[in-house]
Amino acid sequence: MSDLESRLLAAHSAGDKHALVALYEEAAAATDKPEAKGFYFTQAYVYALETDHPKAAELHQKLKATGREN
Question: Closest Cα partner for 62 from 24, 12, 8?
Answer without folding.
Answer: 24
